[in-house]
Each structure stands twice: as C-alpha cells, then as structure tokens.
Hints:
Layout: H1 2-34, H2 46-50, H3 52-65, H4 75-81, E1 112-119, H5 126-141, E2 147-150, E3 156-161, E4 176-178, E5 187-190, E6 195-196, E7 203-204, H6 205-216, H7 243-253
Parallel strand pairs: 1-2, 1-3, 3-5, 6-7
Antiparallel strand pairs: 4-5
One zinc ion binds next to loops.
Amino acid sequence: MDVLYFSIILTFFCLPIDGEKSTKFKKTVEYLVQYGYLEKNSMSNSSLLSGTSFRNSLREFQSFVGIPVTGKMDKPTMKMMSAPRCGVPDKSGKSNRVKRYTTDAVIWNMKHLTYKISKYSKQLKRNEIDTTIQKASNLWSKYTDLTFEPSKRGKIDIRFEERQHGDGDAFHGELAHAFSPQDGGAIHFDDSKRWKIGFGPGYDLYQTATHEFGHSLGLGHSKVKESVMWPYLPNTWKRDLHPDDIKGIQELYGKKTSCKCNSP
Ligand SMILES: [Zn+2]
Ligand SMILES: [Zn+2]
C-alpha cells in the first residue's frame, strides 16, 4: 500500500518536472540548430544528443556570447537564448547564407549599390522608414567607398514581413534577417515586432537596419558585444559602427579613399 501510494505521488510530482525539462531541452536543441551550433540531423539522433555533441555545441554558444562555458542549460544560457536577436545563424552550420568575413566571404563586385523598400511596415511612416534605411546604409559608406542609392529597381530588396514569407525561413521570434551578397542581399524585418524610430518603446529600426546591411554586404556575426554585428541588440549603441565592424567591412571592401577618418 505504501509502495503504491509512493508511486502515485512520484508519478504526480515527477511527470510535470520531466515534461518541463524535456521542453527546455527541446527548445535548447532547436535554438542551437537554428543558429548553426548543431547539425539539423542531430535533432533526430538521440545518441548524439545525449552525448558530447549537445554539450559541445552548448559550450560553443556560451563561448560565442561570452557567458560562463559550462556545457549546461544554466540560467545565463537560458537568459541569453530568450534575448531578442537577429535570425541569421552565428555559425554557417545550418545555412550558407552568411560566410564569416574572416574566411571566405562573398562580396559585391561593385561599389555603388542600389536598394528598394518593396514592402513597408504597417507601423511607421514611409518617409521615416526611407530616412532611417538611408541613414543605416550611410554608416557603412562612412568607412568605405561603398555608396547606396534608393531605386525602383534596386538590387537589395528590403521588406517588412511576418511569419512565413516565401523564403523558407519563417520568423519565429527573430527581429530580422538578411541574405549575403551571393544570395542577393535581401533584408527582411519581422513586422509583428514593435518597431520604433527614435525614442519610445519598441525595437530600434536604425540599429537593426544597420546590422542587417552588414549581412547584406557579406559580414557575419561578431563576438564583440559593443559591435553592430553582435547578434543581439546592445542597449548602449553609439549610433555608429564599432572599430570591430569597421575592421570587418574594410577587410571586405577596403578603406575609404576620400578621407583620412577611417582608421578603426
Ligand atoms: Zn545578424
Ligand atoms: Zn525572410
């Protein structure tokens, strides 16, 4: 009788905890796959997941984002995984959209680039979006000979979209994503997110657009927390490129030739 009672209690109290644990584990695996730390096929391979490959990819993630490298689903890890971020993988395991600029980045073979905003946000005024996108692109022109021009037949297609939007990469929590030059450099913002220009609640469109232009030009994510190419939104953005971003973009396109203001 006691044993039966104990079993019932055990079942009653343990099941929800196990369920919670496995949901947490599943979400962690999905995150690691989504952002390139774990191969997609390992999701169905339980022996891989129970072994070192899960812990190693967790360690790689922790190391990339600069939190204690424990290989465990601890508080700092879970907190980081719930922070708003860009949808482009940090590593190219999942997708080959972005090549790290330190290895074999593909770049535009022209200095004068055009863009078009072919789908506007439902939340902001068109002219404000136009100005913000122009300001974001200008930050990359400031340190290189690249120039950007809005044009009806622009090469870089910019859209505000929601959920599934035709590129096989539905939004599920990310703020935005972008394609590398070899894939056309398109930039998509998730319009189900609350966007702001200037002060107030919401995500900063200027900051996010500057980041996504970086991908559009061939840059990957940076480990430097203060940089524009950090995958998350730092609270203390100085509304300019960080020396790490300047170094990255100049490795791809060279320094600006018309001024002496471009050393990182
Ligand atoms: Zn990004
Ligand atoms: Zn998209």
